[in-house]
Write a structure and sequence with these properties.
The protein is built from 7 helices and 6 strands, in the order βααβαβαβαβαβα. Helix 2 runs parallel beside helix 7. The two termini are 12 Å apart. The chain is of the alpha/beta class and 187 residues long. The chain has a single domain, classed as Rossmann fold (3-Layer(aba) Sandwich). Strands 3-2-1-4-5-6 form a 6-stranded parallel β-sheet, with helices on both faces.
């Protein structure tokens, strides 16, 4: 696990307010984060932030245009902050992106290469958004991949189920938080 990193993606205040269904998502994610730290696995946070005035948003991008209309993702807005229940600690890296994938419009690849990381453990909101987009791009970049399905969340439970049970296992190891914690626990 020395070359792994846990990615905590788009777990921002406004996004949690929209997606969290009261199922205990944040406590499970927090356990994964604590377990990664205990195992010496770097925790890298990824947030979506758009510049004021949204110069990077094309009207052809339906998702971002809708988010802008809803007042989401503007740099510096309180709702764009990482949710306080899983806030970064000193030494954690925070990467800002401008699109769906954690790699799009960010320096994530540079951070990973600089640390010699070749394996990613993916968590975040939404399963059908940042997790899917990042998984596809990371697969094309030849990373070893693990998805923690109960540390991912989507507003559509059926889409989440399909992705984590049918699609993601074709490309990544899909393992529950508790099982991953047992596998990564310091010996």
């Amino acid at each position: 696990m020395a070359n792994s990193a846990l990615l905590v993606m788009d777990v921002q205040r406004d996004i949690v307010d929209i997606a969290d269904d009261g199922s205990g998502y944040l406590p499970r994610l927090s356990r994964a984060i604590d377990g990664a730290r205990a195992a010496g696995i770097p925790v890298i946070y990824v947030v979506i932030e758009l510049r004021p005035g949204n110069p990077e948003v094309s009207p052809r991008n339906r998702v971002l245009t809708a988010a802008v209309r809803a007042g989401l993702f503007t740099e510096g807005d309180p709702g764009t902050e990482i949710h306080h229940d899983i806030a970064p600690r000193q030494g954690d890296v925070v990467v800002a992106k401008r699109r769906g994938s954690a790699f799009s419009g960010s320096d994530l690849d540079l951070v990973l290469r600089g640390r010699g990381i070749d394996s990613l453990v993916l968590t975040g909101i939404a399963t059908s958004g940042v997790v899917l987009y990042t998984l596809c791009q990371a697969m094309d970049l030849d990373f070893n991949l693990t998805v923690l399905p109960d540390a991912c969340l989507d507003t559509d439970p059926e889409v989440h189920r399909f992705l984590t049970e049918k699609l993601f296992p074709q490309w990544a190891d899909v393992i529950a938080v508790e099982d991953w914690l047992k596998a990564t626990a310091p010996q």
